[in-house]
Amino acid sequence: MANKSHLKNRTRADYPYVLEYRTRWSDNDMYDHMNNSVYNFLYDSVINAYLIEHCGLNPRTSNQHPMMAHTHNDYFGSISYPAVALLCLRVNQIGNSSATYEVALFEKGKDDVRAVGEFVHVFVDRETGRPSKDGMDLQFRRGLENILIKPQSKM
Fold first, then answer.
1. Whether pTM exceeds 0.70
2. Alpha-carbon distance values, 150 to 57, 64, 74, 153, 155 (Å)
């Protein structure tokens, strides 16, 4: 994952997939901003929405499914009800049976990123709960490659 100064300068244009979320009253905590645990819930939701819409994932019947292996979040500002959150998604790396996602949360109508998270999924076989020796399902891989950000070469 990029260093914090790079993450803090992220813009919506850095992310090819965006999902809107209207915050709820219950998302706020006693400090009048969205509770930290809600960020992870939203990140999981945008990732799974993308997998269902663009990678052919059927959570109940697909032969493989994603299993969370790692999460991390950096906070740069708060958001609170009744704001609309923009959940912005990209893939930073694809392995044999894993994907590393970056999710940024913006508030609709404001430019500054509020938080950036990293999630790692390992795709496992439904029957064994282990990664397949053949790696990630090809349909998942192709869908994820559509939002894979290629590292820029250094000159």
1. yes
2. 24, 25, 22, 9, 15
